[in-house]
Design brief:
The complex is a heterodimer of chains A (about 100) and B (about 475). Chain A has about 100 residues and is mainly beta. Chain A has one helix at about 35-45, and strands at about 5-10, 20-25, 25-30, 50, 60, 70-75, 80, 90-95. The chains are: A mainly beta (about 100), B alpha/beta (about 475).
């Protein structure tokens, strides 16, 4: 079930394109292909993108233009800015700097 | 590796206008930009967004399409989605694109890296749900994503623009919490010809305010004591306006009190900056063409001092004329002649800007935050800790890094630098110029070993 998001997609928005599955912290989300990843995650109801390494405080996108680094996520072992990535099917996204319990 | 006559960093109004002008004068131009499509932040994704939601975004935004159209011509190579992490004198532009490092050689460089939101450290500004107003605009322009229950906090015309756009989209903000006072506007009007020079912006502002009023969005002006509250995310904004305490429950807070030059690339090249008192920020030292003291290095647009999109476009054209003259493609006489009408237009734009600067000054509480407020978001250093560094003898921001790690996180001081300079200057009773700014070194953006290795491979393959 799609969680209620503080954000809303307009009819002309990211929902216009076909949706592809990505995983965020083990949860599968259907996001619009080619959309800005940070915007798509916000619209899908993701509220905490990461926790700070200093105090563990929750963070989410702040500037949306590649300057603040608060939207950092981990994809394929590399920590990247979600606001500088486009959605592609199969992205496996995790919160960075967190211990991952791999069931495998 | 081919050598280009000119490399332009940034495809916003200044970079796009400069590219078109320089190419028209015969220069081989490479335009490098981080985003997948041209426009910069002000015209973000304009070619796609105008068709989808032009009516919400407004006519001024749509004008950006003129500039993107100007890029579709011979002589311009637009390298999109390229994150520049180093610029070396001479010039060599190092960047990452699609997971691979790459390099461009160019005789001349124009930095058109634009502006960043002025840091607005308030209690609670690091909570999820708190974003810059610019971020709110980017969400709407590029992605058609709107905040359902937002409060807009701060000062400046951008707040009115985003509020009006939200009204048009059918999700008006819950309230505007404005920090400027009636006195600020009166002073701006009273300033020699201020209202007259700024009339076009004033008229646009009044039109936006009328839209906001029709939608019955409450406006609270002269707000003080602003704090964002919430457990784990933004839940409310608390403030005092006209002697009354308010608390507005919300999910999203958009902050804005002006924009400041993005100095990272210029400072990494050693360009001298000076404090601009009226704009309360550092600006690079340039001549009237945007030339720095380093031969072949120019800066145009908001990165040279805040003038807005129209002024940035003009500055881009002016820089391109002088760059073409230096490259031997334009006579000095023709350069001066073509610059004349641009200079007249530039003077009009900058006079209007002086009016806006006075009418919407930065929020005093965010320029000198309370001790408990986090100022360095990355390393979570508070204003009180920076003041503490000063008591222990810390004079400048570079020393402050050693005292308490401010500015050493991934954003490299982009959202704390001006605050740390201001706090140290005040605590030590010195000027911002005496206090200085962080020393910026490459990589300007993180680069992975894999991306570097991919670049080495490319270089060997080319040999």
């Amino acid at each position: 079930m799609k969680p209620v998001s503080p954000f809303l997609e307009t009819e002309s928005g990211t929902e216009a394109g076909p949706r592809v599955p990505v995983s965020f912290d083990g949860r599968t989300l259907e996001l619009p292909e080619g959309a800005n990843l940070a915007a798509a995650l916000l619209a899908a109801g993701v509220q905490v993108f990461r926790r700070t390494p200093v105090s563990g405080a929750p963070r989410a996108p702040y500037c949306m233009m590649g300057a603040c680094f608060d939207c950092l996520v981990e994809i394929d072992g590399v920590v990247r800015q979600a606001c500088m990535i486009e959605v592609t099917g199969g992205l496996a996204i995790r919160r960075p700097h967190e211990a991952h319990d791999d069931p495998a | 590796m081919t050598r280009r006559d000119l490399a332009i960093i940034g495809a916003g109004p200044a970079g796009m206008a400069a590219a078109a002008q320089a190419a028209a004068l015969g220069l081989a131009v490479t335009l490098v930009d981080e985003q997948p499509r041209p426009g910069g932040q002000i015209y973000r994704d304009v070619d796609r967004a105008v068709a989808l939601r032009g009516a919400i975004l407004g006519a001024d935004y749509g004008r950006g399409a003129r500039l993107t159209a100007g890029l579709r011509r011979d002589g311009i190579d637009h390298v999109a989605g390229a994150v520049v992490w180093a610029i070396e004198e001479g010039f060599s532009i190092l960047y990452t694109r699609e997971g691979r490092g790459a390099r461009i050689a160019a005789d001349r460089v124009l930095l058109a890296t634009g502006a960043l939101e002025r840091p607005m450290p308030l209690p609670g500004w690091t909570l999820p749900g708190v974003m810059t107003a610019g971020a709110g605009q980017i969400l709407l322009k590029q992605s058609g994503v709107l905040a359902r229950r937002a409060v807009l906090v701060g000062s400046g015309p951008l707040l009115y623009l985003i509020a009006a756009q939200m009204v048009r989209a059918g999700t008006p903000p819950l309230a505007l919490v404005e920090t400027q006072s009636r006195g600020d506007l009166a002073r701006a009007m009273g300033h020699a010809g201020g209202a007259l020079r700024g009339w076009r912006y004033l008229a646009k502002g009044l039109g936006l305010l009328a839209e906001i009023a029709r939608a019955r969005v409450p406006r609270h002006t002269g707000a003080t004591g602003i704090a964002i509250e919430g457990e784990g995310r933004a839940e409310a904004v608390r403030f005092t306006s006209r002697g009354r305490a308010h608390r507005i429950a919300c999910d999203t807070v958009f902050l804005h009190h002006g924009v400041v030059p993005n100095m990272q690339a210029a400072r990494s090249l050693g360009v001298a900056h000076r404090w601009h008192q009226a704009q309360a920020c550092f600006v690079p030292q340039l001549d009237g063409w945007g030339r720095t003291e380093m031969p072949g290095l120019f800066i145009a647009g908001d990165g040279a001092g805040i003038g807005g999109a129209a002024a940035a476009e003009i500055a881009g054209r002016l820089a391109a004329l002088k760059l073409a003259e230096e490259a031997g493609r334009l006579s000095p006489e023709a350069c001066d002649r073509q610059a004349r009408p641009l200079r007249a237009a530039q003077a009009r734009e900058l006079a209007a800007r002086a009016f806006l600067d006075r009418a919407y000054p930065p929020f005093a509480e965010a320029l000198a935050p309370a001790d408990a407020t986090v100022v360095c978001r990355c390393e979570e250093v508070t204003a009180g800790e920076i003041r503490g560094h000063a008591r222990l003898g810390c004079l400048g921001p570079n020393q402050a890094k050693a005292f308490g790690r401010a500015g050493m996180g991934p954003c490299q001081g982009r959202y704390c630098g001006l605050t740390v300079t201001a706090l140290l200057a005040e605590a030590n009773a010195r000027t911002p110029d005496e206090t200085g700014y962080y020393r910026i070194r490459p990589p300007l953006k993180p680069v992975t070993l894999g991306e570097l290795a991919a670049m080495e491979d490319a270089a060997e393959a080319a040999q």
